[in-house]
Amino acid sequence: MNNALNIMKSRVLLYCILLAIVCSCTKTVKQSKDFDIIETNEYINIYNSKGKLDSVKITQKQLMYESNVLTSVNIYTGLHTYTYQNNSLYSITETSEPKRNIIRTTYYKDKSEETIELRNNKDTIDYSLYQYRDDDKTQLEYMRIIRRLNGKPIIDIDINDNYEEWYFYHKGHLSNKVRHDCNSSQTEETYFFDAIPNKENLQSIPKSKNKQFIKYHTYNTINDTLIEKYFTNGEIDMVIRKYNDNGKQVEHTYATDGFEILHIRYKEKDMDVTVTSSPFMGNSTDSTYTKNGKDMRVVRVDDEAKCLITYDYDRYGNLTKEVRKTKFF
């Protein structure tokens, strides 16, 4: 634990360094006039007589340049179809030209949301179920996720795996999780506590032959800094520091596996700005500008490229256009 705290002290200067990088990178993206890739997604929102979405027609256009000369044009289409039973019971079916054999349908009910993604209209490759305690869907009760592709690993941005997970909540807080790996047939159980578990807490965990993890976290305030420490089976694996710096909310997270991320949140005129920086597996910085809960602009910079993303909405608040411009270093 002392080693982790020493690491934290040695990285306090990261905030100042990354903030300087954010400011310089943001200006660079704004001033750049040429890009290597320009991707445009246009959404034609069609509403019914009650003002609800009936369908969304999507056109995706990708323009690729080399030395400011257009070298490639790719255009794809997609369609979202809405089916209503009443105000709270409806479904959305998504299809797209690049994945003609994939159909994704989400069913919205009074206290649940269920998504099924099918390949060739028969093989379930992605499934999720969110069950809530209240009609406003603010308190989760149960969640189930399946990632599977014909019994073979499905490629995910984080890891290649083939699994099923169940999440259980108590009074709105995650209490335990069960994860079954379909490749290895191994099952893991994880139990969550808001503080160091006492004897009664530990006795409440059912005996099992599966691998078990006990996670908990502690809070401590030093001066104006809130320090949260997260433990797994008694070993510290993550520390989060939260504090204010000249009107900016700073949240600095790092883990013992080398992962590190810094969030800075502040107001800029009528925008809420969130700057996210991470040196983990290459430096990256995202600056997200939000208004009335909607993303308006994102500036993204990493070791390989800089990217500017802008969003437009209609009067109902639904997305009409997304433009992503990328320049490689």
Give a short overview:
This protein is mainly beta and 329 residues long.
Structure keywords:
single chain; 21-stranded mixed beta barrel; mainly beta; DUF4595 domain-containing protein; 23 strands; 329 residues
Low-confidence stretches: 1-32, 150-159
Order of helices and strands: HHEEEEEEEEEEEEEHEEEEEEEEEE
Total of DSSP H or I helical runs spanning 4+ residues: 3
Number of strands: 23
Helix fraction bin: under 10%
Helix and strand content put the structural class at mainly beta
Beta fraction of the residues? over 45%
- Termini Cα gap: 40 Å
Largest sheet: 21 strands, mixed, barrel
Name the overall outline. globular
Nearest-angstrom radius of gyration? 23 Å
Mean pLDDT, all residues: 87
Would you mind describing this structure in some detail?
The protein is mainly β and 329 residues long. Helix content is 10%, strand content 61%. The chain has three helices and 23 strands. The strands form two sheets. The chain has a 21-stranded mixed barrel. Strand 4 and strand 5 (102-108) form a beta hairpin. The longest helix has 18 residues, at 14-31. The relative contact order is 0.13. Mean pLDDT is 87; it is low at 1-32 and 150-159. This is DUF4595 domain-containing protein.
Element layout with pairings:
Blueprint lengths: L1 H9 L3 H18 L5 E11 L5 E14 L2 E16 L5 E7 L5 E7 L3 E8 L3 E10 L7 E8 L6 E2 L4 E2 L1 E8 L2 E9 L4 E8 L5 H5 L7 E12 L2 E8 L2 E11 L2 E8 L4 E9 L2 E8 L5 E8 L2 E9 L2 E9 L5 E10 L1
Parallel strand pairs: 13-14
Antiparallel strand pairs: 1-2, 1-23, 2-3, 3-4, 4-5, 5-6, 6-7, 7-8, 8-11, 9-10, 11-12, 12-13, 14-15, 15-16, 16-17, 17-18, 18-19, 19-20, 20-21, 21-22, 22-23
